């Protein structure tokens, strides 16, 4: 199974912003305890590269990637630190081509048909859709799925515990990402157990735990009594989305 398949299996990708390198390993361990085996550490802070290195070295069971990668130099730094995937908020062709050349999984940000056509021409099939809530959310991705069947989206920006189920149930969604699972205020050193409880409470507010979501995705059955990846009305009360 390649990295893109593993991300799809996980179904959710925490976007983690770390100010201090020493928080990286405890955060990775807390996420693992919470049933999340993927983390995207963003290059929004100077600690990103070293944080990725620490997780790659000390928590090998965690799939660690780099987020907010804006150029080839950051991409190389992330790759050398041990990042297994690269996420960018937009489409930068040199960055994307460099990842493809190196055999590194890359998820460029694309929200328009032209951007999507550019990545399809490069042979990619998964894009980040950011900021999802601003660019039309599920309605927009569903519309884009018409001309681009087989394309998978990873929405971030406005995804949260309240709308996660709706996102990950759509067949054109590979995984949903966001920072809601790993807010700075719950990061270690406060302690990892508190972090875990917080995550469970957050995900519990949408009716299912993070563990259950991951488990369901692994088994291709997003919800109890639902056909694989097919939301049904009782699981989606209040939802106007139907993928039948
Ligand atoms: C990202 O970098 O993908 C987004 O900033 C995450 O968005 P969120 O903070 O709304 O989850």
Q: Which features does this protein show?
A:
single chain, alpha/beta, TIM Barrel, 4-stranded parallel β-sheet, 244 residues, two-stranded parallel ribbon, globular, binds 3-phosphoglyceric acid, 10 helices
Structure in a nutshell:
This protein is 39% helix and 13% strand.
Task: Give the helix/strand layout.
Elements: H1 3-10, E1 12-16, H2 24-33, E2 38-42, H3 48-58, E3 63-67, H4 72-81, E4 85-87, H5 93-102, E5 105-107, H6 113-121, E6 126-129, H7 137-145, E7 152-155, H8 164-169, E8 176-178, H9 192-204, H10 210-218
Parallel strand pairs: 1-2, 1-8, 2-3, 4-5, 6-7
Bound molecules: 3-phosphoglyceric acid.
3-phosphoglyceric acid is lined by residues 15, 42, 67-68, 130, 156-159, 177-180.
How would you describe the overall organization of this protein?
With 244 residues, this protein is α/β, with parallel strands linked by helices. The protein has a single domain, classed as Alpha-Beta Barrel (TIM Barrel). The chain has ten helices and eight strands. It has helices at 3-10, 24-33, 48-58, 72-81, 93-102, 113-121, 137-145, 164-169, 192-204, 210-218, and strands at 12-16, 38-42, 63-67, 85-87, 105-107, 126-129, 152-155, 176-178. The strands form three sheets. A four-stranded parallel beta sheet has the order 3-2-1-8, with helices on both faces. A two-stranded parallel ribbon has the order 4-5. Helix 2 links the parallel strand 1 and strand 2 (38-42). Helix 2 packs across helix 9 and helix 3 (48-58) runs parallel beside helix 4 (72-81). The longest helix is centred in the last third of the chain and has 13 residues, at 192-204. The two termini are 28 Å apart. 43% of the residues are buried. Mean pLDDT is 81; it is low at 188-244. Bound molecules: 3-phosphoglyceric acid. Residues 15, 42, 67-68, 130, 156-159, 177-180 line the site of 3-phosphoglyceric acid (3PG).
